[in-house]
User: Which sequence fits this backbone?
């Protein structure tokens, strides 16, 4: 089963959800607005992908941080601390599947990684 994490009104999350539906892949969606990601889950993801990949530095939430707050994000623990209170700054969607963590939406990676029914 695919677990997908994100914010329902995010365009990239919408693309991923549409892709999963189109390919008839069962999934469970976790909306950060209703179920914020906790430090334990962020730590789990950071063990599989780098903390730099988890932090969305292109988004509005990152840009709203002060220079000092941005500069304080320099390693896994500081990133997890900031992401746990700013879930909208997490790169999304995050997909968990077979002990893998995928970030963002990429049709080719989804096709090669997620089990598509024949």
Assistant:
């Amino acid at each position: 089963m695919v677990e997908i994490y994100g914010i329902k009104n995010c365009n990239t999350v919408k693309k991923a959800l549409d892709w999963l539906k189109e390919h008839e892949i069962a999934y469970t969606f976790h909306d950060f607005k209703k179920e914020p990601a906790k430090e334990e889950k962020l730590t789990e993801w950071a063990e599989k992908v780098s903390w730099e990949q988890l932090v969305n530095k292109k988004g509005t939430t990152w840009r709203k941080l002060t220079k000092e707050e941005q500069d304080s994000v320099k390693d896994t623990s500081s990133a997890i601390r900031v992401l746990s209170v700013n879930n909208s700054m997490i790169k999304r969607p995050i997909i968990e599947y077979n002990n893998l963590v995928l970030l963002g939406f990429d049709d080719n990676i989804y096709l090669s990684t997620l089990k598509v029914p024949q």
In short: The chain has seven helices and four strands.
